[in-house]
Every structure is written in C-alpha cells, then in structure tokens.
Design goal:
4 strands, single chain, Alpha-Beta Plaits, four-stranded antiparallel beta sheet, 2 helices, alpha+beta
C-alpha cells in the first residue's frame, strides 16, 4: 500500500460537522477499493480540505471520493515519511 495526501478546493466555510460527514462517507465505502482514510483536515477560511490515506493507487482514492460526492482536485503520493 502507498500513502497519499489529497486536496479538495472550493470548500470555503466548511464546518467541523460537514468535514466529519464527508470523512464518514469515505469511511463507509473505503473497503470496496481497499483504501484506508486515516485523517482529514480543513481550512474553512481558504476552503481547502486535505485527506491522508493508504491505498493501492491514487485512482482508488479518487473513486472513493467521487462515489462519496466530493472528488479530489489533487492527489499526491507520499513516498517518504519521517
């Protein structure tokens, strides 16, 4: 499995409740794509949401997000961590 960080733009004003709902929607179907969403962060002022996941591919991450109703604008592999 690889690690990915994905970015969603255009989410200005997102609330903690909305972030939790979106994250829960991903968690509900993640197993179907063998993805594990670890965490999500949001900056309501800038309208940016970040998600950390482990997945077989960036495409698998995007499929989950698309089915959950919030496709990612960017998906970045994270090949090194400290």
């Amino acid at each position: 499995m690889a690690t990915f960080i994905d970015v969603h733009h255009g989410m200005a004003g997102i609330t903690a409740e909305q972030l939790n709902e979106a994250h829960s929607a991903d968690l509900a179907i993640q197993d179907e794509e063998k993805v594990t969403f670890e965490r999500a962060w949001a900056d309501p002022e800038d309208g940016v949401v970040y998600c950390l996941s482990e997945a077989p591919s960036a495409e698998a991450v995007q499929r989950v997000h698309e089915r959950a109703g919030h496709p990612a604008d960017e998906i970045h592999p994270v090949p090194l961590t400290a």
